[in-house]
Amino acid sequence: MPREIITVQAGQCGNSIGSQFWQQLCQEHGISQDGNLEEFATEGGDRKDVFSTKPRVLNGIQTGPYRNIYNPENFFVGKNGSGAANNWGDGYQTGESVHEEIMEMLDREADGSDSLEGFMMLHSIAGGTGSGLGSFLLERLNDRFPKKIIQTYSVFPDTTNSGDVVVHPYNSLLSMRRLTQNADSVVVLDNGALSRIAADRLHVQEPSFQQTNQLVSTVMSASTTTLRYPGYMHNDLVSIVASLIPTPRCHFLMTAYTPFTGNNVEQAKTVRKTTVLDVMRRLLQPKNRMVSTIPGKKSCYISILNVIQGDVDPTDVHKSLLRIRERRLATFIPWGPASIQVALTKKSPYIPMNHRVSGLMLANHTSIATLFKRIVRQYDGMRKRNAFMEGYKKTAPFADNLNEFDEAREVVTDLISEYEAAEDADYLSPDTGNSAPAGEATSQTTIVPSSYHTNIQNLTHKMPEQQSKADLIAERQSNLSPEDPPSLRLELRRCYKSTLDQAEM
């Protein structure tokens, strides 16, 4: 029986994507528009909470054809209904002012779950509600449910072209801090890359938001197939996160999907013949990544999980992996296993497929740091001139000072350094990042040495009769000193979650 996942949709982008995602899942599982299961349809394990500060966004969902699949009690609209004005501070202070109402909704859904596994948040980090209210929710979810997995599908702004939100560097940087510190896994979706891929696949010059949302919902649907059609591996969030994220700070994932088709454009209906090798080879092509990155000479994969859906012979998968290795189509980190993990899943019996095989790649790649660098560079350019800062100073988080910006920038630059360090062979060396020239302070982002991982593993194996693994980890957490790296805190938190989840099962 699949465990429950509570889905949180924040802001206009999050609700638009979420609405299309749920429509697709209903179609795949034979759920009618009134929310009834068709005969032989499989039951899902998900609950939905919808948050927005603009009533127009939610009105579209509440009056749409799939309105009956939502619980009316799980809608939240800002009191003034004017939105967060593309201001992270407005969105965040809205969360603070109504946190009791929001947390009551989340607690109600959590209490109604038989075996809650975690939370899945859908939002954009460029606007005001998705970034500000989304950041607030991440902090509260992490505090209220410390042993549950938190995964986000975060839409990043187009950093290569001028976007609709001029202050997106501010909002993005502030959101990045929460995504780094409070989420266990972040699936990054870049608006620029999404528009490029949708235009290429659908043969349209300027794809609409609905068309790019279709691409996002397809990716989300494919990434949850192993949860909805569970097999013997990768059948829960914990196993997926563990296979892709070997170190806690490097938890930002990129995706690729093929073949992507559309029913509204005649040219997009045609699909060339697909084989397992064709699909896996295309997934590795940089042009198919849904993140605009600029790989360097040392850029490499930390991990890859390919979700292959359709009629597939496992022998073909093995042969394809051998061919990819022979051609050296993927470069991996020097300190970890150089292997592509593959999960085979079923096709939906309710939707006819125009192709025999489709594939999704979830990858942890060091080049994602180049996206973060562009955000920091654009932030620095605006902050240098204090452009558009007055609107932020009027909100509660910045009423006294602008330290929030400085702290967020430090967290993001540390994250960039972490990904760059992961490209080196001595990444897990105990001495890496622990020494500094005389007179200089050591960086707060010390790499987690292998000895830390060993200590955590030893800690969980020492299990006296009167003390559980979770108690031992909690004791180690309470004994952390300010000198311990933040990444150790995250590693202990993840171990604590995993241990308690195993105890519940």
UniProtKB/TrEMBL annotation:
Output a single Gene Ontology CC term carried by this record: microtubule
Stretches assigned to the Tubulin/FtsZ GTPase domain: 47-231
Mind telling me which InterPro entries this protein's record contains?
Gamma_tubulin, Tub_FtsZ_C, Tubulin, Tubulin/FtsZ-like_C, Tubulin/FtsZ_2-layer-sand-dom, Tubulin/FtsZ_GTPase_sf, Tubulin_C, Tubulin_CS
Ranges of Polar residues compositional bias? 431-448
Q: Where is this region: Disordered?
A: 426-448, 463-490
CDD domains, per the entry: gamma_tubulin
Q: Where in the cell is it found?
A: Cytoplasm, Cytoskeleton, Microtubule organizing center, Spindle pole body
Boundaries of every Tubulin/FtsZ 2-layer sandwich domain copy = 233-377
Protein keywords: Cytoplasm, Cytoskeleton, GTP-binding, Microtubule, Nucleotide-binding
Q: Name one GO molecular function term.
A: GTP binding
Renumbered to this chain, the signal peptide range is none
Matches recorded under Pfam families: Tubulin, Tubulin_C
What GO biological process term is on the record, naming one?
Answer: microtubule nucleation
Q: Is this entry keyworded Nucleotide-binding?
A: yes
> Which branch of life, at top level?
Eukaryota
Concerning SUPFAM superfamilies, the annotation shows:
Tubulin C-terminal domain-like (SSF55307), Tubulin nucleotide-binding domain-like (SSF52490)
GTP-binding keyword on record = yes
Task: State the similarity comment.
Answer: Belongs to the tubulin family.
Q: According to its UniProt entry, what is the function of this protein? A: Tubulin is the major constituent of microtubules, protein filaments consisting of alpha- and beta-tubulin heterodimers. Gamma-tubulin is a key component of the gamma-tubulin ring complex (gTuRC) which mediates microtubule nucleation. The gTuRC regulates the minus-end nucleation of alpha-beta tubulin heterodimers that grow into microtubule protafilaments, a critical step in centrosome duplication and spindle formation.
Name the chain's protein.
Tubulin gamma chain
